[in-house]
Write a structure and sequence with these properties.
Shape: globular
CATH architecture: Alpha-Beta Complex
CATH superfamily: Oxidoreductase, molybdopterin-binding domain
Structural class: alpha+beta
Radius of gyration: 17 Å
Largest sheet: 5 strands, mixed
Strand content: 25-35%
Bound molecules: ligand MTE, molybdenum atom
Number of domains: 1
Number of helices: 5
Number of strands: 10
Strand order of the largest sheet: 2-1-10-5-6
CATH class: Alpha Beta
Length: 161
């Protein structure tokens, strides 16, 4: 079946990559509803998010050691893409955590909805699949409990209000 050791190793590597993948690219991980262009809730996958321009934020956070590189979509681009017209995002996480984010924050601070941390998709066990990341190191005023509490991880759904 396998013609060489190299082929066996490639097959094993492919299997490991598959097993460690937190979500498949097409799995629905985010649902957005409320004041958006669509009357029905919009279900999104990692692939849908990656179709938007990527944005990287490198920052320290209260929850990570040293500088961490987060990659995701600019949150303002995402809500523009969905034709959002509200003033507040009500963000709900898989662990039933819930936070309210003023839409004004998104553009003002360049908040991202991150799907990767240090180049890897984030497993649910490590704040994935989606994490609201404020660029804390760009703005010292962000380093307080107000913005920490808006930094929801394990994000599952967003209602635009
Ligand atoms: N999904 C999720 N995100 C969350 C939280 C949570 O419990 N679940 N707590 C929030 C609050 S209120 C703050 S201050 C920080 C708390 O992080 P800590 O519990 O690691 O201190 O993360 C925020 N994001
Ligand atoms: Mo908090």
């Amino acid at each position: 079946m396998f013609k060489s050791v190299r082929m066996v190793l490639a097959a094993v590597a492919a299997g490991l990559v598959f097993m460690s993948a937190p979500v498949s690219a097409s799995e629905v991980i985010l649902t957005v509803d409320g004041k958006i262009a669509s009357a029905a809730p919009v279900d999104m996958s990692i692939a849908d998010l990656e179709a938007l321009a990527p944005r990287t934020v490198v920052t320290k956070t209260p929850w990570h050691e040293g500088d961490t590189t987060f990659e995701g979509v600019l949150f303002a681009d995402l809500i523009d893409h969905l034709g959002a017209s509200g003033e507040t995002l009500s963000v709900a996480a898989l662990n039933n955590y819930y936070s309210e984010i003023p839409v004004e924050d998104l553009r003002r601070f360049g908040v991202i909805l991150a799907y990767k941390q240090d180049g890897e998709y984030m497993p649910v066990s490590d704040k994935g699949p989606l994490f609201v990341v404020y660029p804390f190191d760009e703005n010292p005023e962000l380093k307080n409990e107000v913005y920490y509490s808006r930094s929801a991880w394990q994000v599952r759904s967003i209602t635009v209000e």
